[in-house]
Amino acid sequence: MIQIRGVHKSFGDLEVLKGIDLDVEKGEVVSVIGGSGSGKSTLLYCINAIEPINGGEIIVDDINVHKKNTDQNKLREKLGMVFQQWNSFPHLTVLENAALAPQVVRGLSKKDAFEIAMKELEHVGLGDKFDEYPTRMSGGQQQRLAIARALAMEPSYMLFDEVTSALDPELVGEVLDTLRLLRDDGMTMICVTHEIAFAKEVSDKVAFFHEGLIEEIGSPNEVLENPKKERTQQFLSKVLH
Amino acid sequence: MENYVFHWNVVFKAFPQLLGGAFTTLHVSVLSMLVGIAIAVLLALGKMSHSKILVMASSSWIEIARNTPALFQIYMAYFGLGAFGINLSPYFAVFSALVFVNAGYLAETFRGGFQSIPKTQYSAAKSLGMTTFQVYRYVILPQMFRRIYHPMTNQFVWSILMSSLGILVGMNELSGETQRLQSVSFRTLEFFIVAAVMYFVITKFVLLTSSLIAKRIFKGDIA
Ligand SMILES: Nc1ncnc2c1ncn2[C@@H]1O[C@H](COP(=O)(O)OP(=O)(O)OP(=O)(O)O)[C@@H](O)[C@H]1O
Ligand SMILES: [Mg+2]
User: Fold this and answer.
1) Which structural domain, as residue segments, surrounds residue A106?
2) Is residue B223 part of a domain?
3) Residue B93, in any domain of the structure
4) How many structural domains are present in chain B?
5) Could you read off the pLDDT of B90-124 as tens digits, one per residue?
């Protein structure tokens, strides 16, 4: 599981996370919602140690993420992450994109790496695109590639940072379908999202972020249907139309 | 002029010497590129570093190289240093000047190529568990190489053409050789026409080879 305890994070003088506590159990889907700049992305970056933290601790399984002698590259093998911008590697084919990390990070043979990559690409519906170059594909396809690329590392957890917000509206559905598929596989996920209906449907827990703190957390029913806090109500009424 | 009679025979007899000159031209251009590339990497890193001194030193080199005529640089290396008792051979003077300019231009090319790779490529690769070395080796540098490949080819062609300034310090590259041969035979026009054709063939050959290689090694479709 992922345990986040009293995490503080600043960029210079700007305190972005002001004491975040959050537990994510194995198999759980946690959605994170909240206004722009409330620190949602920053939290994900802190979980996989792309950003250092200034206080508190984050424990993934039994790895203390920000402790001095933690092997953070090893940690990142457990945590798949997909970004708002899909960041395909444009010089590699779709198959090479998904096979690169299994090959160089996990040290698999080219054959084994390609096998895993093919399996994951088929899983996200890109079975007919192995030799295509990503820049020739739609945003939705590239985002599914990014998901397959992360899955090919066989991570225990997946972190999603607004993976649909840079997409044309008609491409959002195919990416959300892929996330549903992962949920059905039992993947543990943290999804930062603006898709409230989707969060309601797939989440076990929803956390509402406000100015670097979790303002309200609970089941989708509690937070999205019957929010207790005024700020949550305001936020929802703003984004729901 | 209207009754100028072309005499090609002399030129053909001297062809081996012209080829020798062409060889020296290629020699100095290739070497000045290789050394220029090595220094350019250092200059680019220096300019992107956090050390004020390194930034200043690299920027000065780059600015002077890009904003002064190659002719002056060759004169500086040959006559300028000569005045201080440092006597470079014509070859070495031209070589040094070309290295100086190549390094300055390529440093900017490298820096631009590096900065054109989005930072998010780095985080995406990192998030897959790659070490910093692996990120550069497999993700950043291959993309950067594509972007600097054609500018590097152009710089090489520029070096070939600029090495013709060797004529002014008595270097025996293609232009110097041509100058010498025409002055003893008085077939000025013929010699310079043949030399021009040779330059053209060499640079065309370089450009074509370079784009053939590019087609083979760059499979994706980013420029
Ligand atoms: N690398 C950085 N350097 C400095 N400030 C940063 C950096 N990254 C984020 N910030 C700042 O931290 C705050 C929180 O940013 P963050 O990206 O976590 O917000 P967010 O909740 O994900 O917002 P959004 O919904 O717009 O994505 C913002 O004010 C942002 O400007
Ligand atoms: Mg964000």
Assistant:
1) 2-239
2) no
3) yes
4) 1
5) 999 999 999 999 999 999 999 999 999 999 999 99
Nearest-angstrom CA–CA distance, A207 and A22:
9
pLDDT in tens, A118-137: 999 999 999 999 999 999 99
d(CA A31, CA B7): 86
Task: Determine, for residues A89 and B121 on separate chains, whether the beta-carbon distance falls below 8 Å.
Answer: yes
CA B134/CA A76 separation, integer angstroms: 14
pTM: 0.87
B222 lies in some domain: no
Single-letter amino acid, residue B163: S
Rounded to the nearest angstrom, the minimum Cα separation between A105 and chain B is 6
CATH of the domain at A109: 3.40.50.300
CATH number at residue B34: 1.10.3720.10
Q: Is the CB of A16 under 6 A from ligand 1?
A: yes
pLDDT tens digits for A149-180? 999 999 999 999 999 999 998 899 999 999 99
Asked if residue A36 has its Cβ within 6 Å of ligand 1, the reply is yes
- Residue A154 has, within 13 A of its CA and on its CB side, a CA count of 11
Q: Quote the ipTM score.
A: 0.90
Instruction: Inform me whether the pLDDT recorded for B223 exceeds 50.
Output: no
Any domain includes B58: yes
**B222 at interface of A, judged by CB pairs closer than 8 A:** yes
Question: What is the DSSP pairing of strand A205-210 with strand A29-34?
Answer: parallel
**Tens digit of pLDDT for each residue in A179-190?**
999 999 999 999
Q: Do B125 and A50 touch (CB under 8 A)?
A: no
Helices (H) and strands (E) counted in chain A, each on its own, are 9, 10
User: Which residues on B lie below 8 Å from A89 (Cβ)?
Assistant: 121, 124-125, 139, 143
